[in-house]
Structure formats: structure tokens, C-alpha cells
Amino acid sequence: KPREVSLVDTSSGTKESKYHNRKADYYDPKTGETITFDSEKERDYYLLLKDRERRGEIRYLNRQFEIEIQPAFTDKKGTKIRAIKYKADFYFYDKILKSWRVIDVKGFKTEVYKLKKKLLAYRNIIIEEV
Questions:
Q1: Distance between CA atoms of residues 102 and 65, nearest Å
Q2: Beta bridge mates, 34
């Protein structure tokens, strides 16, 4: 029998995540900023990348980097169609590999994610999953 999951934790009144991940915060003492991540795994990978950036192995580290797959347009009937976009968890230049990298910290692959990954691969943008 499939496990039933309540979307509301009745003890605290907060919603449970759709994919059972827990938001995770990181306080950056240098900037005084608190960054909230979608999961503990994503936060931990960010800290690994920040360490690589500190050592000079990577540059231009970006979080939640948006890539347009298809621009917005107006069809023949005049209906406006929104752009299709993909938001990468991390995007940076790897000095060791001498290439730009797109990283997604994945716990669960949705059908929409799989489709966007294929569309980007067609454009020679490869999403690496960790």
C-alpha cells in the first residue's frame, strides 16, 4: 500500500515540501546575508563550490541562474505565449575543465525537468546532476 503523506504538519501548521526536502539556511559571515536553499543537499553543494571558488578552481559562481529555452511570442491568433525557462541551481566557469558548467542538485526528476534537460541538450547546454 502506498504511504500516505499529509501536506500539513498539524503540530506546527506548516506545509510539508512536495518532494520531502527541507529548506536549509546558510549564514555568510562575510556578507552578513542568510541564504535559503531548497534542500540541505543544495546548501552543502554550494559550500563545496564556495570552497572551490576560494581556492581559485572556479569563477563566476551563480545561484538560481535562469536560462531561456524558448522566448516569449505571440501566436497567429494574437495570444501571448510566455517564454519557457529553466532555472539552474548553479552556473559557473570551471578553470580546471576550462568550461562553463550547469549544475542541478536533484532529489527527484519530474517529467518537466526531463523535457527541459533534453531541450537544453539539443542546444548543447548539458545539465550535470549531483
A1: 9
A2: 27
The residue with cell 552556473 is 91
C-alpha 45: how far from its chain's center? 11
Task: Give the residue from 73, 74, 28 showing the smallest Cα distance to 54.
Answer: 28
Using one digit for the tens of pLDDT, what is the confidence trace for 64-112?
999 999 999 999 999 999 999 999 999 999 999 999 999 999 988 999 9
Question: What is the model's pTM?
Answer: 0.80
d(CA 10, CA 4): 15
The H-assigned helical ranges of 1-130 are 40-54, 111-122
Cell reading at 95: 578553470
CB atoms within 10 A of CB 73: 10
Q: Which residues are CB-neighbours of 71 under 8 A, at least 6 positions away? A: 83
Do 58 and 109 meet the contact criterion of CB atoms below 8 Å apart?
no
Read off the C-alpha cell for 20: 520531502
